[in-house]
Amino acid sequence: MSEQNDRPSVGKYHRGRPPRALAEASVEAQRAALAAYLADRPQLAEFAREMVDAFHEAETANARTRLAAAGLARKKWKEYEREVPGLILDGRDAGMSGAEIAAELGMGESYVFRIMREKVRYSYRIDVLDDPDIGPGWQADENGEGVADANEAGGFADPDSLADTLRQGMLGVRRAHMAARVLLWKGPDMGPDDEAAYVREWPATGAHEQ
C-alpha cells in the first residue's frame, strides 16, 4: 500500500462548516441557536437556571453582608466619634503634637488643630441643697467631664449656658425647683472647690416656678 493510501481518509473526520459560522451570526441568531440547543437538553437548561439563581443569591447575600458590616462600623464610629475631641485634648495635654495626634488617629491635621484651638476639656460637679434623699446642706449629686467650646484665651466660651445645660440635664424636671450649684474646672480632673474656674448657684424655687 502506498504511503498516501496509509493515511486516514480526511473525509472520515472532517465535518463541513455551516454556510454561516455561528460566531459571525447576529445576536438574535445566536440566542435562537442557544435556545434550540437548550430545548433539546432540559437537564442542562435546568442546571444553567440553577447556576444563574445561585449567582444572584450569592451577589445579594454578599451585598447584604457588606451593607450590614458597613452599618455596624458606622454605628461604632458614631459612638466613638463623641470621644475624639477629648482624646485630642488629652493627647495635647500629654505633650503630643498635633501632627502626632493626627497620625495616631488617622485624621487630617487641620481637624486636630481646630479641636485644639476651639475646644476645652472640663470636669464638673453638681451640688444640691437639702435634698431629702441625700442629706441636709450642700451635697454632691453628680460629677463628670466633657468638652466645651473655648474662647480665644482657652477658657470657657459660654460657661453660663454650659452650667445651665448640665443642671437641667442632671436634676431633670422632678428636682428642677431645688437649690443647686455647678462647679467647673478646666481639665478632666476635679480639683478643690476654691480652684474651680467657674461656680454658679441657683436658689430654690416653688415646685412650679423656674
Mean pLDDT: 82
Radius of gyration over C-alpha positions, nearest whole angstrom: 38 Å
What would you call the shape?
Answer: elongated
- How much helix is in the residues? 40-55%
| Major beta sheet summary | 4 strands, antiparallel
Please tally the helical runs, counting DSSP H or I stretches of 4 or more residues. 8
- Write the element-wise H/E pattern from the N-terminal end onward: HHHHHHHEEHEE
Percent of sequence in beta strands: 15-25%
**What are the segments in which pLDDT stays under 50 over at least 5 consecutive residues?**
8-19
Q: Please tally the β strands and state the result.
A: 4
Helix/strand class: alpha+beta
Strand order of the largest sheet: 2-1-3-4
**Through-space gap between termini:** 123 Å
Topology:
Blueprint: H1 3-6, H2 10-13, H3 27-39, H4 42-81, H5 84-93, H6 98-105, H7 109-118, E1 119-131, E2 135-149, H8 159-171, E3 180-186, E4 198-202
Antiparallel strand pairs: 1-2, 1-3, 3-4
Helix pairs in contact: 6-7
